[in-house]
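User: I've been going back and forth on whether these two constructs are worth ordering. Before I decide, could you fold them both?

Assistant: Sure. I'll take them in the order you sent them. The first construct and its structure tokens:
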Amino acid sequence: MLIISLTIIASLFYILATSHVLSRLFHQQGPSQKLTIILSTVAILAHMLLLVNSVFRADGQDLSIVNVSLLTCWVIVVSVTTVSLKFPATLLLPVVYGFAALLTIASLFIPHHILLQSIDVDIGLVTHISLSLLAYCVLIIATLYGVQFYFIDKRLKRKDLAIVHSHLPPLMVVERQLYHLLTLGTVLLTMALLSGFVFLDGMFATEFIHKTVLSLVAWAIFATVTIGHLKQGWRGKPVVLAIMAAAFVLTLAYFGSRFVQEVVLNKF
């Protein structure tokens, strides 16, 4: 009952925060930062309590894909909300809050096995997991910045006056933040993969090879785009599409197989 209540509170306030930002998306003064922070903070705290009660149980830790997804989503929400305090993120907030609302609600209905296990404190494993989570979150946020860049650029090319007088951030600012995040995320992903090869056995074992290969493919795309931007000045729509493709592949690597095993196959 507690988990259901926390889920309802988190999703409700995420929806309220999303609605508020969207309602003033193209307003010259933009959404009220104070109201946005109040609504999102309540949602974030409820989301955190939901995670604590879902993951930590008396007989172990529930590390199912649903809870891992909720944790990843929470880190992204906190990161984007924190960034929005200093830099305009008007387009990112409704996307992040809206997705968080959908995920928290869906967590009540997605069938999944309760994977109770005791966490064995292994420095190598903890390092790999931490770097992987950080890399994924940073690269997903970079992808969201890419989508924001594409949206603003497209509206500007159409000479849409509404976007010129809106509260949306300048295109060059978005682009600069995009490539900063992309570079940081690529470095973290490189370190995550290296830590996996150094500390973990069986990276190419049958049960893990799909994850390793997909992660390497995503890394290759991210690294190519990052180096291309730094050395050759690559930018624009092709780069954004490449980043989106790499983010999709990385998502498949992190969550694809577990989703099939814990959700799809569990139905049959």
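The second construct, handled the same way:
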Amino acid sequence: MARKAKTEGADSAENAGRLKQIALTYKMTRRTDSKIGLIVAGVGLVTLGVLLGIGFAIGHPVYLGILGFVLAVLAMAIVFGRRAERAAFGQMEGQPGAAAAVLDRIGRGWTVTPAVAMNRSQDVVHRAVGKAGIVLVAEGNPNRVKALLASEKKKMARIVVDVPVHDIIVGNGEGQVPLKKVRTKMLKLPRVLAGPQVTGTNDRLRAMGDLMSNMPLPKGPMPKGMRMPRGGKMR
């Protein structure tokens, strides 16, 4: 009995935490998408209404009503998730460190090291290692980040010579990848490395070290006023 009560208590706490997270996501999304509540509710009502209409037409309003309710909740969740994601990218876009926040959510199979190269203008290069090889994701001024990317590639060439290296410059200009499409772009890269090769590559790169190894870095977008210390090593 005690174990059952403990399990039920844990489930209740988990559900409460999930509802709190949904409410917080809704509030954040509503700041940039004021109509999200009406749109999500409208999608649910239309879905339920269509299924109920079909149910009355074929003489099974109860069955179709239950199915309509389930599908309405599913449709509302999908629409809410997509609009919340779009709003989140809109709020992050243009902020230093936004790409690091996206990489942090890329999922399993990738090892992400934020800010392996940076300059005083807050142009940054992040590194991700997975079965597609090494992906360098740069954000900042397109002309300046090209120099950072070249420098990072040259340094890695001494350590990993048999691993493909891809580079992505975040932005909306020609040859750049919009922030919201970075994850999709990376997941579409061909997988050419086996698990042990990925582990070995990570070990070699970790031994090489990185710019931020001795400097604490907050998760997500970096504060706009953040600057490299004057004594810090630059690339």
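Notes on the second construct follow. The radius of gyration is 23 Å. The helical segments are 2-30, 36-58, 61-92, 98-103, 142-157, 182-187, 195-208.
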